[in-house]
Amino acid sequence: MYNFEFVKPSSVDEAVAALRDEDAQPLSGGQTLIPTMKQRLNQPSKLVSLTGIADLVGVSSSGGVLSVGGATPHATVAAEAGDYPALAALAGQIGDPAVRNRGTIGGSLANNDPAACYPSAALASGATIVTNAREIAADDYFQGMFTTALDEGEIITGVKFPIPQAANYQKFEQPASRFALTGVFVAKYADGVRVAVTGASNDGVFRWTEAEEALSANFSPNAISGLTVASDDMISDLHGSAAYRANLVKVLTGRAVAACA
Amino acid sequence: MKISLTVNGKTMSGEAEGRTLLSTFLREELGLTGTHIGCDTSQCGACTVHVNGKQVKSCTMFVAEADGADVSTIEGMANTDGSLGVIQQAFQDHHGLQCGFCTPGMVMAAASLLEKNPKPSEAEIRHHLEGNICRCTGYHNIVKAIMAASGQEVPAVAAE
After folding, report:
1. Reported ipTM
2. Most buried among A50, A162, B3, B51, by the most CB within 10 A?
């Protein structure tokens, strides 16, 4: 890989200042960024490490909201997000143990890989993405494959998840990469049910609103039996056709609802 | 830049660039070639080491991120008298290696598992080894070795 300048600030303000340089990029766990740099698909002139900023790491729960620091590794969320068990379970299924010790929630959400797990949890929970500059609702944050509402140099400092009454994540794993071939996160709140799908669509994570309406009226796997998922915008590759993924969305949603019971 | 680490209990230092990976630093700067580079794409786990007690793939971490950290590698797994450590001995006893290339990563992953879960089930061992690939496909004997290293009965594992 090409060389770069490495800096490791100890505060968010220092990190934001360091990111003002042209071609500077933030480095969180690096589990996606480092492989892409090795392939020379990415060549920042400067990497600003976020993992030395103590304020960005940790899990806490208060008033029905679970807050996760932006540079918190998946393994920590898996171990400490007990107040939101479905989120802890999702974090414990990402990649493998070594990846979970490095990869972070902020890195995952900033990258917004169309097959990543965390975007489905954030969207299904109606989470708030907190940055150094503002708070962004999950519904406004995800803007398509690898695209988010983040501005250049903006850092995710934390994510706030309203804790649902019941929730479950069903991941149909692509066995080689361990990314979601399709993953569905269902979260039931007092004011309705939210269903978010990852791994399936060419537009990245999305809400299946028809299922949300049906499940809000009747929270049972049978409630979605009459629905169909259009395959027009679904990803089609050697691992699965668009129609296959569209079917997985429905099957996994049913399983997630059943698992909530 | 100058990097200082504690590796297997000894303070070590050397020169690195921003792009220097922890695996490169261990092998080329410190001469600790027990940590293997299998795929260099974060898939195979042969380069697994512990950083501040946590299992990581050293090919997917810049050494600058580990500056000042406490690192454990395969070279630190033997007993102080040079005899094989418990996990290493179990790998030998149960033929848990064929070509041996993946073994450093397997042993480090196993050590990390047994630290958190001293009596893992066969399923838990297989789940924990998801990020470690053995191209000789000797997984059954690796699983047996880890069962033995945890002081458990070694079962007849599936598909034999």
Report:
1. 0.94
2. A50
What is the rounded CA–CA span in Å between residue A116 and residue A180? Answer: 7
CA dist., res. B80 & res. B145, Å (int): 21
**B56 with A2: Cβ contact below 8 A:** no
Residues A67 and A157 in one domain: yes
Show pLDDT as tens, one digit a residue, over chain A (261 residues): 999 999 999 999 999 999 999 899 999 999 999 999 999 999 999 999 999 999 999 999 999 999 999 999 999 999 999 999 999 999 999 999 999 999 999 999 999 999 999 999 999 999 999 999 999 999 999 999 999 999 999 999 999 999 999 999 999 998 888 899 999 999 999 999 999 999 999 999 999 999 999 999 999 999 999 999 999 999 999 999 999 999 999 999 999 999 998
Chain A's closest residue to B56, CA to CA, is A98
Hey, of A1, A2, A5, A6, which one would you mutate to test binding to chain B, going by the most B CBs within 10 A of its CB?
Answer: A6
B9 and chain A: CB distance < 8 Å anywhere? no
Characterize A114-151 residue by residue with b for buried, 16 or more Cβ atoms within 10 angstroms of its Cβ, and e for exposed.
bbbbbbbbbbbbbbbbbbeeeebebeebbeeeeebbbe
State the Cα–Cα distance between residues A85 and A163, nearest whole angstrom.
Answer: 9
Across the interface, whether the CB atoms of B42 and A1 are under 8 A apart is answered: no
A2 inside domain: no
Find the domain containing A104 and state its range: 56-162
Asked if A183 and A142 sit in the same domain, the reply is no
In chain B, where the domains are located: 2-76, 86-149
CATH number at residue A78: 3.30.465.10
User: What residues in B contact A37, CB-CB < 8 Å?
Assistant: 19
Structural domain tally of chain A? 2
Q: What is the CATH number of domain B2-76?
A: 3.10.20.30
What is the spatial distance between Cα B88 and Cα B82, in angstroms, rounded to a whole number? 12
Residue B117 sits at the chain A interface (C-beta within 8 Å)? no
What whole-number distance in Å separates Cα of residue B51 and Cα of residue B70?
A: 6
* Mutation choice for B interface testing from A23, A41, A47, A101 by most B CBs within 10 A: A101
Question: How far is the alpha carbon of A80 from chain B, nearest alpha carbon, in Å?
Answer: 15
Q: Which amino acid does the sequence have at B111? A: A
Decide which of A162, A193, A228 is a domain's last residue.
Answer: A162
Architecture of domain B86-149 in CATH?
Answer: Orthogonal Bundle (1.10)
